[in-house]
Amino acid sequence: MTPKLDRLARFTVRHRRTFVVGWLLVAIGISVFAASVGRQFADDLTLPGRDSQEATDLVDEHFPGQVNGTNPVLFKAGQGTITDQQNRKLIDETVKALQADPAVASVVSPFSQAGKAQISKDQKIAYASVALVDGPGDLSDREAEDLVDIATREEGEELQVAVGGYLGQQVSKPATDSSEAIGLTVAAIVLVLTFGSVIAMGMPILTAIIGLVCGMGLITLLSNVTTISTTSPTLATMIGLGVGIDYALFIVTRHRSGLAAGLDPDEAAVRATATAGGAVLFAGTTVIIALLALGLAGIPLVWTLGYAAAIAVLTAILVALTFLPPLLAWVGKGIERLRVPLPHNTHPDDRPHGWARWAEWVADHPRISATVGLVILLVLAWPATSMRLGQEDLGQLPTDTETRQAYDLTTEGFGVGDNGPLLIAVEPQGDRNAVPELTRAIAADKGVTAVSPPETSKDGDAVIFTAVPNTSPSSFDTQDTVDRLRNDVIPKAIGQGNAEAHVGGSTAGYIDLGDEISENLPLLIAVVVLLSVVLLLLAFRSIVIPAQAALMNLISIAAAYGIITFVFQEGHGASLIGLDGSVPVVSFLPLVMFAILFGLSMDYQVFLLTQIKEAKARYGKDRHAVIEGLAGSARVITSAAAIMVAVFASFILNGDPVVKQFGVGLAFAVAIDATVVRCFLVPAMLVLFSRWNWWLPGWLDRILPRLDIEGNEFYEKRPVP
Questions:
Q1: Is the domain of 320 the same as that of 190?
Q2: Is 316 within 8 Å of 554 (Cβ atoms)?
Q3: Are residues 304 and 427 in the same domain?
Q4: Phi, psi (5° rounding) for residue 108?
Q5: Are 269 and 255 within 8 A, CB to CB?
Q6: Residues 226, 309: one domain?
Q7: pLDDT tens digits for range 396-413
Q8: Same domain, residue pair 552 and 665
């Protein structure tokens, strides 16, 4: 790997202007092109074999045009009732304007015969049901915004208007600009404290921004040809920004060490890329593979989250390896300019005495260190034993979003359950009594507040109706209601006949998604852990070290799950992060978080173990190697972790509860991994296992290919230019 990276770096450094200017032009070009094309993000809830999917397929087959459901446009009278002449006139004008738009398939007015149930009992609130030509995956942001503008055209003091459904959701995603700005600001402060130079600080920031712009442009363009989850761009931004800064930090740190050792800027940039760049390539590839492993779950929504984030990581790696080296060579020794006066000098040797003393203490007290680390992680992980997966709570979105306003108006006028009605799809198969009996049984269930009149398909082979729960879509009671209908109410009502009935709709779909993820999580864990063990086995030629790393990572991820459960599901401190109370842990979060965290933890694992392995080769003593490795890598690891934590934590400010969960979970996980795991557990375990750390059976040693991540020995016999 090292010789190839050396040749690549020398080529980019020789053609520095081409690569630096070229990447800038590519970033600008992709960004402009993506903005002109637009974005079409949507959540694909396709779940083959699940009950909700059976209901969707039945509707798609027998009720053409209804598979996407409708989008309610809610109206609340400012004065009087919704049926007053002036209010009715405004609503009728809105309905006519929507009907005239080619993107609208049909509109059911609350004042029509079919829309009588769309007026609240107190006649203060009503809604029009709008069916669109395009489904969630085909509706562009521009079309959605135009339709919302039409729907809210009459809004004012006399009439409050809000748009729900997937139309409202498409225009209700909180912006991430402020989070990105805060994350970059904190990262810049950490880098200044680390390097002591404004120019050196700017290198990782600029590199990360170029990579992020390119990655997000590609994801946006891809959203126009395939369905990508609405959460994907935000998650990709978080990951891309974090790893982009961290990867550049590793290379810049090694570059400055080369300059301090007397290398000229060109040679220092080349060697930094060939050595630290090897660790970046190894760790980044591991992150990408872990993210792509999400495809094993066979869940489209989760798969799009994985490959979108993988695209962001890939662009971060490419920019770090082909944009940063020529930039470093171009800047030359000017990287140390604009020094910032600090209480202490910052040196590029990565050996602050405080970390050396800490490393010696850990080496002298390995049992205490290991015990303390394990106790902390197990205490943090304990709440995860009661974690229960659910769906996003739209009632926790910011109050200025269309979806939240529609949610609140629906709750006020019709009850909270109307925000997520259950679709009951029936195939009577000649049983005339099946539908009436089923309707009565479902209406009588304690979790159901109302049932709509059944609608029969033209061919008479299918019937659909809705059941409105008396609890919110995100409530665990609603999950219990769906389970009860499927497992008890429906089987008893149908009896031994040939009829079949399925519970569908978005609420039931998200419940099925949680079940699907719970079943697939063990498989993903097994595959990713096995992959990491194999990669570490190749990199460090040891049986014990990969096993230790896998175990430590599993425990630290469990601790992250525990924190998520404690804060969100149990509601402790939820008000501090902008929530009104507890919310469910969104179903896909544990699966996606595992892939991300297991991949990211490899960054610090590889960097620390590489330093320890080099010290072992120099000194031959395991205890001394651990001290040297920890002391030599701790500052870079803590700086990189602080940046990653800052980036992830800044997204807690985002109004979307799902994004908040990712922000809290990833920020705490990285903090735990870089402190408790890397500074307590890993060095303590390495000291305890001593010479067994590097044990490898002879037969395995002979057949394994040799992989040197940072390849320092490649330069040992080469003279310094």
A1: yes
A2: no
A3: no
A4: -105, 110
A5: yes
A6: yes
A7: 888 888 999 999 999 999
A8: yes
